[in-house]
């Protein structure tokens, strides 16, 4: 039996170092983003930066507790974690506090619990437990259906809040399914549907449908003798046309006006630097003004004079760009990339299928947040409001990301065993 003490010292300290570095970077940048001259101390607990320190300490204590638990605990209790988060996602729809149009927080004293953040690690755990079961093949319809339900149920509940950004996070877990045997054609088809989605938003639905029919006609004409090919193209065309009309319906009837406007700004359909495009415009100004080395700590004018809304949460990367410049931004991005590569490398060396699947889930969730959050601050993707892991202000997000990561660290520490 492996000694718990040896397991603790078998923790991957490179990931621990990156985690602590990102938390500290976040703490200092939150201090800069919401700096109050009346309360200048970074440890003042009456301020958001003081509260973030408490969140960091709490997260570290929780991470240490996770490292002391038995590895089998996470596998055995994964259905319970999943069930509890689903219950919380239902409860928040009735008793949750509405902030910014999303009813996503359950008030607990002065703390606001966001169940959607905790649903990420619980979903990864249950998906890992199911996919690590014996005699499962992702080519089987039943297996795909169950995996789909594990992902769709929390996604649907989060969409009811409605919190589109958090809901979209679960789509990143398609990479886990791909690693475990899902056909690469699925990713290609997914990319094609994304292209159709963008084309439908840029042009008339009927124009896109007509283009699809024309392409299908050319392909069929060039392969008249191949009946199976013709059937595949015909079915694919019908499904694609149904999809673009669903996109048109969802865009015009389901998305809220501010969400449509944010997408239109990114696509260049509207230019509204003082309205829906204000956040993005100010974000670009802040990051661009930082130059190579930045303006210096607490010296960012865009930051100091509150030109960028939500700068301590969704737009925290603007503070990094303005005050620390390209050099500081590069360091932050390099830390994330190193973290992701390290997690994937550790996941690949596992003897336990459960740990491998969970590791890929951790990497997928972190990559989605990292790419989307930074992408929306520089105009690559629409503003959907998700935090930058370990750096953005917020107790729920920091604690949930810590749980997500430290569970993997604990599982990896026992990599010579099999769960």
UniProtKB/TrEMBL annotation:
It comes from Paradesertivirga mongoliensis. The keyword Transferase applies. Pfam families: FTSW_RODA_SPOVE. The chain crosses the membrane at residues 7-29, 49-69, 76-95, 141-160, 181-199, 205-222, 229-251, 324-345, 357-384, 390-409. Keywords: Cell membrane, Cell shape, Cell wall biogenesis/degradation, Glycosyltransferase, Membrane, Peptidoglycan synthesis, Transferase, Transmembrane, Transmembrane helix. Its main location: membrane. The gene is rodA. It is a multi-pass membrane protein. It is found in: Membrane. The keyword Glycoprotein does not apply. This is Cell wall polymerase.
């Amino acid at each position: 039996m492996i000694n718990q003490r040896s397991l603790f010292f078998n923790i991957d300290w490179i990931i621990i170092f990156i985690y602590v570095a990102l938390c500290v970077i976040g703490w200092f940048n939150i201090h800069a983003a919401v700096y109050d001259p009346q309360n200048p101390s970074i440890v003042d607990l009456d301020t958001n930066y003081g509260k973030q320190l408490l969140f960091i300490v709490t997260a570290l204590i929780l991470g240490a507790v996770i490292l002391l638990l038995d590895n089998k605990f996470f596998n055995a209790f994964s259905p319970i974690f999943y069930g509890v988060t689903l219950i919380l996602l239902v409860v928040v729809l009735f008793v949750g506090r509405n902030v910014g149009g999303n009813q996503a927080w359950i008030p607990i004293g002065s703390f606001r619990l966001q169940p959607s953040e905790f649903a990420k690690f619980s979903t990864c755990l249950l998906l890992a437990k199911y996919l690590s079961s014996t005699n499962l093949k992702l080519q089987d319809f039943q297996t795909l259906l169950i995996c789909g339900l594990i992902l769709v149920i929390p996604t649907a509940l989060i969409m009811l809040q409605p919190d589109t950004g958090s809901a979209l996070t679960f789509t990143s877990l398609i990479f886990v399914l791909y690693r475990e045997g899902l056909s690469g054609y699925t990713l290609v088809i997914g990319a094609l549907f994304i292209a159709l989605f963008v084309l439908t938003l840029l042009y008339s639905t009927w124009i896109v449908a007509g283009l699809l029919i024309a392409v299908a006609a050319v392909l069929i004409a060039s392969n008249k003798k191949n009946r199976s090919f013709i059937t595949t193209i015909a079915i694919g065309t019908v499904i694609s046309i149904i999809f673009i009309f669903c996109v048109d319906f969802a865009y015009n009837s389901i998305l809220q006006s501010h969400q449509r406007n944010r997408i239109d700004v990114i696509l260049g359909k509207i230019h509204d630097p003082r309205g829906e495009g204000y956040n993005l415009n100010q974000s670009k100004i802040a990051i661009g003004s930082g130059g190579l080395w930045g303006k210096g700590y607490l010296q960012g004018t865009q930051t100091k004079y509150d030109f960028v809304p939500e700068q301590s949460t969704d737009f925290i990367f603007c503070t990094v760009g303005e005050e620390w410049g390209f050099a500081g931004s590069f360091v932050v991005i390099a830390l994330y990339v190193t973290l992701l590569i390290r997690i994937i490398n550790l996941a690949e060396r596992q003897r336990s299928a459960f740990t491998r699947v969970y590791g890929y889930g951790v990497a997928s969730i972190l990559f989605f947040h990292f790419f989307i959050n930074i992408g929306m601050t520089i105009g690559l993707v629409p503003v959907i409001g998700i935090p930058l892991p370990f750096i953005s202000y917020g107790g729920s997000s920091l604690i949930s990301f810590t749980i997500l990561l430290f569970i993997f660290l604990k599982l990896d520490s026992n990599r010579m065993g099999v769960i």
